[in-house]
Amino acid sequence: MFKIAIIGPESTGKSALAKSLSEYFSSPWVPEYAREYVENLSVPYSYNDVCIITQKQIEQENYYSSDNVFNEKFVFFDTNLIITKVWFQYCFQKIPTILTEQLNKNIFDFYLLCSTDLSWEADLVREHGTDREFFFYWYKNEIEETQKPYAIVTGEGNVRIQNAIASLNSYFSK
Question: Domain containing 92: what range?
Answer without folding.
Answer: 2-172
